[in-house]
Design a protein that fits this description.
The chain is elongated. It has one domain (2-137). Helix 1 (2-26) packs antiparallel against helix 3 (38-72), helix 1 (2-26) packs across helix 5 (119-137) and helix 3 (38-72) crosses helix 4 (83-108). The chain is an all-alpha fold. The two termini are 24 Å apart. It contains five helices and no strands. Bound molecules: protoporphyrin IX containing FE. Protoporphyrin IX containing FE is lined by residues 7, 10-11, 14, 17-18, 61-62, 65-66, 68-69, 72, 88, 92, 95-96, 98-99, 125, 128-129, 132. Protoporphyrin IX containing FE binds next to helix 1, helix 3, helix 4 and helix 5.
């Protein structure tokens, strides 16, 4: 039962974080054309509420993900990783990187050096969601 709830919270927090990235990249950024000068103000209004929830959802996703990882990874047989373990490791690394990057940016004001827009995390979330399903297929 405990695992069930941790899994559920992981999915919901990922849903909140990923949902924001989908909204921002697919819809919000397109309003720039229509709103012109008013876009920055409209975006700031939106981001005011995003900042209250989304960074926390990302932290929850990573912390609960670490627990899921500890249960799912299993033992290494004959000194070799299984395909599942390899894909899970990659997924966890990318998820952890996203989490670290988000925490540094939002809570410590450290701007990411290379990727400043939300396009990079958006692509990364799509890749992570793909890997989270793919890892069960390559078992
Ligand atoms: C923003 C980052 C992350 C995203 C978008 C994400 C997304 C997802 C999704 C969509 C699932 C599939 C759930 C299902 O099909 O049942 C999942 C499962 C899982 N995630 Fe994450 N995750 C993230 C971060 C992490 C991190 C950092 C870790 C580990 C350190 C992790 C470990 C796991 C594990 C082990 C599962 C499998 C759980 C199961 O099926 O029982 N995740 N994740």
């Amino acid at each position: 039962m405990f695992y069930f709830f941790v899994h559920l919270v992981h999915i919901f927090s990922v849903f909140i974080y990923g949902g924001f990235l989908f909204t921002d990249n697919l819809f919000l950024s397109r309003m720039q054309k229509d709103l012109g000068d008013k876009y920055l103000e409209a975006r700031e209004q939106f981001m005011k509420y995003v900042r209250q929830v989304v960074p926390k959802a990302l932290i929850v996703a990573v912390v609960f993900g670490i627990y899921l990882f500890s249960v799912n990874f299993g033992s290494i047989e004959n000194g070799e990783l299984s395909n599942f373990q390899k894909v899970l490791l990659l997924k966890a690394f990318l998820g952890g990187w996203l989490g670290l990057r988000g925490v540094l940016q939002v809570f410590f004001g450290i701007e990411p050096l290379v990727f400043k827009s939300h396009r990079f995390p958006f692509i990364l979330v799509i890749v992570i969601i793909f890997l989270s399903q793919f890892m069960f297929v390559v078992k």
